[in-house]
Amino acid sequence: MMLYAFRMLRRQPMRLTATIGGMTLCVILTLFLHSVYEGVERGSMSYIQSIPADIWLLQEGTSNILRGTSILPAPLEDAIRESPGVGSAGSLLLLLTTLETPSGASTVYLASFCGDPSLGAMPALIQGRQISGDDEIVLDRAFARKNGLTLGDRVELRGEALRVVGIADGTNMVVIQYAFVSRARARSLIQQARIVTAVLVRTESGTDCLRTARALMEEFPGLVAYTRNEFLANNLREVRSGILPLLFAVALMGSVLLTGILGTLLTITIMEQKREFAVLKTIGAPPGFIPRVVITQGALLAIAGFAAGCLTFPAVVAAIELLAPEVTPQLTGAGIGSVLMLAALAALLGTIGGLLRLRSVYPQEAFR
Q1: Whole-angstrom Cα distance, residue 121 to residue 11?
Q2: What is the pTM of this model?
Q3: Which of 128, 225, 138 shows the shortest CA–CA distance to 186?
Q4: Concatenated DSSP letters for 214-279?
Q5: Residue 127 has pLDDT above 90, yes or no
Q6: Which of 14, 142, 222, 347 could bond 172 through an S-S bridge, CB–CB 3.0 to 4.6 Å?
Q7: Strands 160-169, 136-140: pairing kind
Q8: Dist CA 107 CA 179 (whole Å)
Q9: How confident is the model at residue 38 (pLDDT cuts 50, 70, 90)?
Q10: Alpha helices of the chain — where are they, by DSSP H?
Q11: Do 166 and 127 form a contact (C-beta atoms < 8 A)?
């Protein structure tokens, strides 16, 4: 059955190529929409998730660092470090500012960490090294590629030249990227040496994080303390309430539209063979034979289009990242499974459409 269905498709090579090509493009676009959604969510969260702090302390009334403002007195870090249950502590200062690059001005989310290195608030590097002086900076990979920057190049921050000593990964939030400087350099931007954004805490081994967080809030009024899981959930909620709903709507509408297009392509391809199906009716094909042929053809076309789309997708992503480095699609197993289900649904719709239209094909059409 499968061989016969394929031979029927092969009799019209141009139509077969056009149909598979159209399905491939639809699959690529659907994969792209799903992967952009995942990429934005992962990119916005990756740096925060990489920090192994057990407790995050922020100004009261602030629940996240993506869209919230927190200002804490810097001496608080030392006092928290001496609190019961606290093993180590560090602080993070975050500022929105503008870097002057050879390609123009670009906004970054400037970060400066100070404290126990075990808190791991410095980014993972793919090139170079971490900062060791006030005239150095670590840039995100997407930001560097977008602005044509490499190790050793210089950017300006408020008129001061900073040398790029490292390129980081996992610090691209798509709409903006992190950059990392020394604490002295960050504080020079605000003329204030006594504030931080958040205090990060690693608890002592065997200590209950939730109980320690509550104790810190009681000991230091005006602070709010979140365990790691609570803090990640807060930031993820902010991401999902921002641009992600729009991306989800685009992905959903695109998926529905492309499913309809795929189904229409399959129906047209089946109807292009109506003379062959008329011949089958004329020679007295067994009951159910024609539907099985149509279903097999739909499945073959859907599998071919899906496979071609998946194989081509990495090259498409590489081309997109060259044109727009800040766009970092992340294809997951769930995303591939969703697109596979859409392809199967399109094949089903196309098959049903073809079978309904074949009911009006009479044996006499074989002699036209």
Answers
A1: 62
A2: 0.78
A3: 138
A4: HHHHHHSTTEEEEEHHHHHHHHHHHHHTTTHHHHHHHHHHHHHHHHHHHHHHHHHHHHTTHHHHHH
A5: yes
A6: 142
A7: parallel
A8: 10
A9: confident
A10: 2-10, 13-50, 76-81, 141-146, 183-188, 209-219, 228-240, 244-271, 274-282, 289-323, 333-358
A11: yes
CA distances to 39, 255, 317 from 327, in Å: 8, 20, 9
Closest CA to 274 of 297, 256, 302: 297
Whether residue 51 contacts residue 121, with contact meaning beta carbons closer than 8 Å, is answered with yes
**What pLDDT was estimated at residue 366?**
46
**What pLDDT sits at residue 273?**
67
Inter-residue long-range contacts of 44-50, CB under 8 Å, 24+ positions, other chains counted: 44/173, 44/174, 44/235, 44/239, 45/232, 45/235, 45/236, 45/239, 46/170, 46/171, 46/172, 47/123, 47/170, 47/171, 47/173, 47/178, 48/231, 48/232, 48/235, 49/232, 50/120, 50/123, 50/124, 50/170
pLDDT in tens, 45-68: 899 999 999 999 999 999 999 888
Residue type, 190: I
Distance CA 115, CA 77 (A): 9
Distance separating alpha carbons of residues 244 and 276, to the nearest angstrom: 48
Reported as half-sphere exposure (CB side, CA atoms, 13 A), residue 67 has a value of 12
Residue with tokens 């496979």: 307
What residue ranges do the domains of the chain occupy?
2-44+243-367, 61-221
Residue identified by tokens 């590489």 is 318
Most confident region among 204-208, 262-266, 282-286, 326-330 by mean pLDDT: 204-208
Give the pLDDT score at 97. 93
Give, in order, the Cα–Cα distances in Å from 90 to each of 80, 117, 166, 172, 284: 10, 8, 22, 23, 82
Q: What 3-state class would DSSP assign to 124?
A: strand
Burial class (CB in 10 A: 0-12, 13-18, 19+), 110: buried
Q: With contact defined as beta carbons under 8 Å apart, do 196 and 127 qualify?
A: no
Confidence of residue 243 (pLDDT cuts 50, 70, 90): low
Q: Which residue has the tokens 């997951």?
A: 332
